[in-house]
Every structure is written in C-alpha cells, then in structure tokens.
Amino acid sequence: MAWLTAHLKTLFASKRPKNPPKRKPPTREEKGKYRATDIDDDNNNNNITSSNNTQPASSSTSSLSPSSSSTTNSSEITDSDLLPIIHHEELHLIPQILTQFPAFYLIGHNLPPAPLPQAKHLLTSPESTKQSLVHPKKSTVRGYNHAKSSGREWWDYTPDHGGTLLTLEDENFRYKTKEYFEKSIELLQRICNEFNQTLNENGEKRVVIPEAVMDDIGFSTMRYLRYSPTILERQNNNNNNNTITQSNNDSEPPVASSSSSSHSNGSSSSTKNNNRKSQQQQQQPQKEDGYSLPRMEAHTDHGILTLMTSTEPSGLYVWDRNGKIFSAPPISGTVMIIAGDLMTHFTALEGKNIVNDGKDAIGEGTVLPSVHAVVLPKGGAERYSVAVFLRPKRDMVVSKYRVKKEDGEIVEENMTFGKWAEEKGQVRGRRCWMVGQERLSGGQDV
Ligand SMILES: O=C(O)CCC(=O)C(=O)O
Ligand SMILES: [Fe+2]
After folding, report:
1. Which residues surround ligand 2, an ion (CB under 5 A)?
2. What is the CATH number of the domain that holds 19?
3. Does 311 fall in a domain?
4. Is the distance from CB of 320 to CB of 70 less than 8 angstroms?
5. Atom of ligand 1 nearest to the CA of 310
6. Ligand 1 atom 3: the closest Cα is on which residue?
7. What is the DSSP secondary structure assignment for residue 256, as one 8-state letter?
8. Number of domains in the chain
9. Counting ligands in written order, which one lies closest to the CA of residue 299?
10. Which domain of life is it from (predicted)?
11. pLDDT of residue 409
C-alpha cells in the first residue's frame, strides 16, 4: 500500500505542461457572448472558446488574464478561471486539452436531453419506492443510496439485464435513462479513440487506451444525484433512523464492493472503518461554518472519463494540476467532461508506469485525474445532476506493480482496474490528493 500512498501524494505536485495554451484574454463582450443561456450550436463557430463563470465571488474586481498563465493563488476563484468549450467536430483536440485543463465543455454533441427530470422523478419518489431500489447487498454503486450527513442522495443505473434491475416501473423513465447512458458511453468511447490517433516522438501511433475500452461498456454506469438542505434536515431530525450504511467514501466507492454479476458486497475493513467514522459524524452537531451545506467532498473518479451535467445552482468546482480552482456551472447545450484515475495510467510516459515510477512516469501528454467537489451555495435551491462514468471491466490490467515476496525477491504483478479501485478505497485521503482540499472536505480526508 505504501507505493499507492506515495503515488497519490506526489501526483499533484507534478510537472505542469511546458507549453501552456496561449489564449488571448477574452474581452468582456466575448465572455458575454458565451454566457450559459446564449449558447447554441449555430452561434458557436469557435472550436475552442471559454466558458464564463457565473458565480465567482471576486469576479467584479479581478483581471481577465488567461487561466493558464494566471499567477492567482490556488485557493482564489477569479473571473479568469475559464474552462474551454470544444465543438464535437474537434474531438481530436481533447487529448491535449485534458493535459492543460481539468475539464472541458462539449458542444454540438447530439446527445438526447440530459435526464435531469428523470433524476428528479426518481429521487423525489416516496421513501418506500427509494428503499425498494436499494441493492440487496447495499452496494453503493448500484441502485439507491444516500449520504444524509452530506445532504445528498443518488441512484446508480444497472446496465445489466437491459437496465431493468433496481429501477422504476416506468417505461418512459427506463427508455430515457438507457438511451442517455448508451449514447454518452458511445461519445466517451469516441473521445478515447482520439487518444490512439496521436503520434509519438517517432511519428507513430500507439495504443494509449486499450481497444477493449472502445468495444465494451465494461463496468460503466450512470448516476442520478440530488443535493438538498431537506436531506440534511432529515438527518438532523432523524439521526438514528438511517437504514442504509453511511460512508464517508461513497462518491466513488471501491468498485469491488459491488459486482454487477454476483452483486457481492465484498465488505472490507475500509467499509467497517467508514461505518465507525460515519457513526461518529452523526453524533457530531452540524458545523456552522459552511460544511453543513449539501455537498460532495473533493475526490477523483476511478474510471477513464466522466460526463456530467446538472441543474442550477451548480456548486461544482474542479482543480487543475497546480491547485487552481475552476467553477464549473452547467452551460446549456453542453456537457462537461473530466478525466478519472485510469486516464493517468493509460497516458503515462511510454515504458513507465505511475504505480512503480511515480512522478517520473508523468510527461507532457499525461492526463491527471480531475479533482472535483460540489458545495451548494448557501440558501440555494436543491440541485440535480447526472454523471456517466466510463469504466473498463474490473479485470482489465491497467498497470504493473512491484511486490516484495517473503524471500526478498521483487516480482511484478498485474494491477487490474478492480484492484486499483479497491486499494484506493482503503487509502486515507483517497478522495483528493491536493493541499487545500480540506476546506471542502472538512479537513477529514487529508
Ligand atoms: O454531482 C455532481 O455534479 C458530481 C458527482 C460526482 O462527482 C460523482 O458522483 O462522482
Ligand atoms: Fe466524481
């Protein structure tokens, strides 16, 4: 485990790209042109442009310098924090964009409307309906779950059996859910394919992302989330009534804790620790310093890519590799895409791997996983979101790691996606490996 802890700690102290994008600072008019409500496919001829933040506290006084060359202190959010918007016709730009920005918006994607009404429908169903969607072995990546102490509840789609398990008895709901999941996965697979079109130093194409990712949905899933002060209130009034195990690590739990085929829960020591921790949390009074707002603590996703969209108010933030924070509100007509842990494994320098070589495996083309968190603004309405996670099968070998045997011999073993996810789940602070995140996590995960 030491290798993993060390790796996680060093990852975000790694090199910044030598050639940061040189973008002209947008004028206020240009920024206004791309405001959330104005964007549609027809008026957006630029392939890359900048998103406009809608809620930075300091926006009125800050300068309009490009984000990448900004010297802003990492914990400040200013008007210069602009995430790029890429047109679907320009998917080939994405491998480079993801080395420079922690997220991008995609426009012109032809996805069906985001199933946010479906998310609301399911997550505001009667409690008895929600309880009937809980996985028999309490998997936190299949069916209904909640983290009341974080003011959040969610439901994970089960793609197996045509999406008919742990779901609502509603044909329209099922159709819209399945359709959005399948189209989003196809889109994420097309983006992965672009990584295999880039040329290496010798001008040759190399397989960066295993072909199996493009051919199979693997352990991909889709999540509907709801953040609401009323969930926190229920928690306050009803501290001992939780029927579902509360975990502090539920945003991306060990994949091994839920098997799509066997539905085994694989109850691990980390789960027991989390239970103890969450019981302690429930006994603590809610803090009054903002941490009692509905939220998802800072973390990175396990998989390859995540596609996200949400209602307002957003409260979604992403960090770049230098610790700079970007606000990432929903922009109409777009979806937001971020990289997960596996993207770092796949895009490591040729001949190196991040598990054994740490920072030395990270080159200019290496994509780091995006740290992200959600904190609802104070007094805001509730928020719904949809996240589609592209993940390979759990037995896919994603890396190698060295193990010292009892006789002292060092051997290399395969690191599968399932093993990666399971071990990450047991590392304290796995949610986020950056200095500064304690502001969002309540300081518990550093
Ligand atoms: O609600 C969101 O927008 C983010 C959800 C998320 O990060 C997750 O479920 O891993
Ligand atoms: Fe996430």
Report:
1. 301
2. 2.60.120.330
3. yes
4. no
5. 3
6. 385
7. G
8. 1
9. 2
10. Eukaryota
11. 92
SS3 327: strand
Best of 252, 307, 372 for a ligand 1 pocket test (most atoms within 8 Å of beta carbon) = 372
Ligand 1: which residues within 6 Å by Cβ?
A: 223, 225, 251-252, 296, 301, 308, 310, 316, 372, 374, 385, 387
* Ligand 1 atom, smallest distance to 308 CA: 3
In this structure, the residue with its CA closest to atom 5 of ligand 1 is 387
Kindly compute the dihedral angle of the four CA atoms of residues 227, 229, 230, 234, in this order, to the nearest 10 degrees. Answer: 100
Q: What count of residues does the chain have?
A: 446
Whole-angstrom Cα distance, residue 125 to residue 122? 5
The answer to whether position 430 is within a domain reads yes
Whether this model's ipTM surpasses 0.85 comes out as yes
* Assigned domain for 441 exists: no
What residue type is assigned to position 351 of the chain?
G
Q: Report the alpha-carbon distance of residue 347 to residue 362 in Å, rounded.
A: 8
Average pLDDT over residues 384-398: 97
Q: Is residue 387 part of a domain?
A: yes
Q: Give the distance (Å) from ligand 2 centre to CA of residue 255.
A: 14
- Tell me the DSSP string of 186-234: HHHHHHHHHHTTSB-TTS-B---S-HHHHH--BT-EEEEEEE-HHHHHH
Ligand 1: distance of its center to the CA of 387 in Å?
6
For 82, the domain range is: 2-436
